[in-house]
Design a protein that fits this description.
Distance between the termini: 104 Å
Order of helices and strands: EEEHHHHHHHHHEEEEEEEHHHHHHH
Low-confidence stretches: 1-9, 414-426
Radius of gyration: 32 Å
Strand content: 5-15%
Mean pLDDT: 82
Number of helices: 16
Structural class: mainly alpha
Helix content: 40-55%
Length: 426
């Protein structure tokens, strides 16, 4: 059957297929519009009409699914990642999330795979990067952070038509070995040892909020006196303290030669606090009586510090401050925790382990799950997963379970003794 040789008029949006003077078949496939609003069409050519029709259908499918490459010079991975992290991610994510993205992009992804064209990046390129990172000493968790960043950034590129596939979604990151003993909540004896040492220190209530109620570091350091109702014995959690970020203030004409955080004229470029990102995070938490007493004493001690400092005092509404006022730095707070553990003779652990301890104690005391979720600030939809992660089964709990099984199956202890005597009879 002879192939069609004439152009046919088609409706708007349809692809045009025709035989050219060069003897090859050509097609103009509408793909949308350019940045200036003018129509954008892709030109295809093949030796036979059947080959061309197959290619047109494939391209139309990509167009309809939104996975076809858009007009313009293809992005390199480096240019896209730098554009994405600054102009797409930064305005919509939290400061901490942006900081993680920025480090992954700048330190790992751009140097490792930045020269590839984004539409030609393959999963193997990323897997090779992860291996090189680990060979250079990076932990598997660091490679995972780079992987998650790449997957998010490339997913956005696919949605915008700059690439047909997300190579990071296909790549296999290195396995992170889970250490079952990584998180071990502190025992009641260890908590009591910490309590004895805490009572000797400044800001003592800060540590008991962590150990007794499981408050996160940012929640505790962001706490203001207006959030604390000692009369009704509860506090409201509304915001998180952010890690400070500084830039040089010394100027290029006379650089100090130090890191930005140690510049004598450093400038704070990150806000001090942010509101909690979830409704569950904005919550009221009951205060046990001893904590109410500690907070009252802490408020009086802070008033004395303010009076003694005079004009040197930096006024703020924070519950926990530096000796001369002003908010505590999360980094300083972390090192204070490490010194507390050492002085109390308690094994080393992360500050976040205090949160695991508080959750486990609540479970050990038989507090209902819904109340635990409220105190810990877990969203209803993910609360079960968070309980599985944070609430640890302790040895006393296992022994109590064994005692109940014994009672249910073998009966009361005196009955067990009788049975044993009967078994020993000749």
């Amino acid at each position: 059957m002879a192939e069609e040789k004439k152009r046919t008029r088609r409706a708007n949006g349809e692809s045009a297929i025709y035989l050219g003077k060069d003897g090859r078949w050509h097609a103009r496939v509408p793909m949308g519009y350019k940045d200036d609003g003018s129509p954008y069409r892709r030109h295809l050519t093949r030796p036979t009409r059947k080959e061309l029709v197959d290619e047109v259908r494939r391209l139309e499918k990509q167009r309809d699914e939104g996975s076809a490459r858009q007009p313009g010079k293809p992005w390199t991975v480096a240019k896209w990642l730098e554009h994405w992290v600054e102009y797409i991610a930064k305005p919509v994510v939290s400061e901490n999330t942006y900081a993680g993205y920025e480090v992954a992009v700048r330190v790992h992804l751009v140097p490792g795979i930045g020269r590839h064209r984004i539409d030609r990046l393959e999963p193997e390129h990323l897997e090779s990067l992860y291996r090189r990172m680990q060979s250079a000493g990076s932990k598997a968790g660091t490679a995972h952070q780079a992987h998650r960043t790449a997957r998010t950034a490339l997913g956005e590129a696919v949605r915008r038509g700059h690439a047909a596939k997300n190579a990071a979604a296909l790549a296999k990151p290195p396995r992170v070995e889970e250490d079952e003993n990584e998180v071990e909540p502190y025992s009641v004896d260890e908590v009591q040892s910490l309590l004895l040492e805490v009572n000797k220190r400044r800001n003592s209530a800060r540590w008991m909020l962590a150990l007794a109620l499981g408050l996160r570091q940012g929640e505790t350091l962001g706490l203001r006196w207006s959030d604390v109702d000692l009369a009704n014995e509860y506090l409201k959690l509304r915001r998180n303290r952010l890690r400070p970020k500084y830039e040089h203030g010394c100027g290029e004409a006379a650089p100090c030669g130090r890191k930005a955080g140690y510049c004598p004229a450093r400038m704070q470029v990150r806000r001090e606090t942010k509101n909690t990102k979830s409704r569950a995070g904005r919550r009221a938490v009951p205060l046990p009586g001893p904590l109410v007493v500690m907070l009252r004493s802490h408020r009086e001690a802070q008033a004395q510090e303010r009076a003694a400092a005079g004009n040197l005092w930096t006024e703020s509404e924070y519950v926990f401050t530096k000796p001369l006022g002003g908010p505590l730095s999360p980094n300083t707070d972390y090192h204070d925790w490490k010194r507390l553990l050492e002085d109390a003779g308690v094994r080393d652990g992360r500050l976040h382990d205090a949160r695991h301890t508080a959750g486990t104690v609540l479970m050990l005391l038989g507090v209902p799950d819904r109340v635990i979720d409220q105190i810990m600030g877990w969203e209803p939809g993910g609360a079960a997963r968070m309980r599985a992660r944070y609430l640890h089964v302790t040895d006393p709990m296992l022994k109590e379970a064994a005692r109940k099984i014994e009672h249910a199956i073998w009966g009361a202890p005196e009955n067990v003794a009788v049975d044993k005597d009967q078994d020993n009879e000749p």
